[in-house]
Amino acid sequence: MDGFExxxxxxxxxxxxxxxxxxxxxxxxxxxRAPAMMAGATDLLRKPNMxxxxxxxxxxxxxx
Length: 64
Hints:
about 60 residues; alpha+beta; Rossmann fold; two-stranded parallel sheet; flat
């Protein structure tokens, strides 16, 4: 299973309805965020340059 299959399954579980889910995707997939967001992802990280993005996303989710 990939993230597009796992994410909706995780969201079906009550303990994961509000759990932040970050998908790690290739740059070519970043062109269209909609499929990941529709699958239930909270946000996306692009390979290979993801460390700065990861820090920003983690800080945003910790504030929530």
